Amino acid sequence: MKKILFIFGTRPEAIKLAPLYWEFKKYPNDFLVKVCVTAQHRHMLDQVLNFFGIKPDYDLDLMRENQSLFDITSYSLKGLEKVINEFSPHIVLVQGDTTTAFTGALAAFYKKIKVAHIEAGLRSGDKYSPYPEEINRILIGHIADYHFAPTERAKLNLYNEGIKDNVWVVGNTVIDALFLGLKIVEENRDLKNKIESYFNYFFDASEKVILVTGHRRESFGEGFENICNALKEIAELYHDMKIIYPVHLNPNVREPVQRILNGLKNVFLIEPLEYPYLIWLMSKCYMILTDSGGIQEEAPSLGKPVLVMRDVTERIEGIEAETAKLVGTKKENILKEVCTLIENHKEYQKMAKAVNPYGDGQTSKRIVEIIKT
Ligand code: UD1
Ligand code: UDP
């Protein structure tokens, strides 16, 4: 029997690993599965664990208010040493590009334990954007023994860095999670009613909604000021649009957002949404303004145009499919692109098509099959 240790710490890792965790759990004779959360996020992580019914076996509980990269890296690495010593897994599984994912891979390597990297091979080509994720992902790629690339492009990125063996193109588990989440909502009438009545407070079926999220470190300061000033102008220009913004808990995000946008009557600054609420809103909104990696991947499946408030992205497939567009963090550009999508029906229709460049919902199955053999 193979001992598998999942290591994760933030909201997006939890979302993308949840379907994979449950897929492994289908084979109790083949795998002993344990979960270690660093809890680099706390509330935002617990929301996801709760929704997908995952109870961690180990919890490092490391989140601190406004933590630095040094804090997360050092506390996480030290905490993981103990967990790995105790469980002695055959394979450690990490996802994506967070500091938890990097320290999880590094800790496993220090103990000469095999590392499986989920969502391997994404590259922006700019070491400071996303920061520090681009470098985290590169480092994990060079440590990992199994590389689960979501797309052919990701595989090629690895190939170009000399990583040629044990690379499988399997899609992205984000789509498995999305389908699973939508199914749970569809089958649970109470939950669906709760979600609908929650959002009834903000908008009715005839109203158009812009969903906004943002949290990237490289945009702290001027970038966020610009984003908020653009949103303010959009709200003032289009009184009939509703802007719903679940604000990330990072204080570097909350300060400018509250200062610039609080009090505008068609802007709703709300707490981070539980995943089923977020995907419901995503499926009903008119368009999305975001810097989120996960949302860039989910939105095309739901046929929603995404304006990506970053200068570069490692999710090129959505841009190529023309469902997403890079708009940077300059106020005038964000404003111009939003106005186009609101006023130009043809341009809107061009972007509002349901395509699935990131997966088909079967990625977890493929990964488990590969690790089983
Ligand atoms: C982290 C990841 C980023 C990922 C993002 C997803 C790193 C360096 N960053 O960024 O790659 O895209 O998560 O959201 O790995 N906070 C809370 N409660 C929470 C979560 C965060 O209060 O549940 C606040 C805390 O003050 C915390 C701060 O947010 O110190 C920053 O959290 P951190 O995980 O360091 O950075 P994120 O910006 O969330
Ligand atoms: N998400 C959520 N609630 C929110 C905002 C986002 O559940 O209020 C989900 C979203 O659907 C996606 C993931 O969180 O699956 C993205 O997380 P985030 O943007 O924090 O991180 P990133 O993907 O950029 O690393």
Mean pLDDT: 97
Q: For this structure, what is the CATH homologous superfamily of the largest domain?
A: Glycogen Phosphorylase B
| Net shape | globular
The ordered string of helix (H) and strand (E) elements is EHEHEHEHEHEHEHHEHEHEHEHEHEHHH
CATH topology of the largest domain: Rossmann fold
CATH class wording of the largest domain: Alpha Beta
The Cα radius of gyration reads: 20 Å
- Please give the share of residues in helix: 40-55%
Oligomer: single chain
Read across the widest sheet, the strand sequence of neighbours is 3-2-1-4-5-6-7
Strand composition percent? 15-25%
Quantity of strands, as a count: 13
Biggest pleated-sheet summary:
7 strands, parallel
| Bound ligands, each once | uridine-diphosphate-N-acetylglucosamine, uridine-5'-diphosphate
Q: Which spans have pLDDT < 50 for at least 5 consecutive residues?
A: none
Distance between the termini: 12 Å
Helix run count: 16
Query: What count of domains describes the coordinates?
Result: 2
| Helix-and-strand structural type | alpha/beta
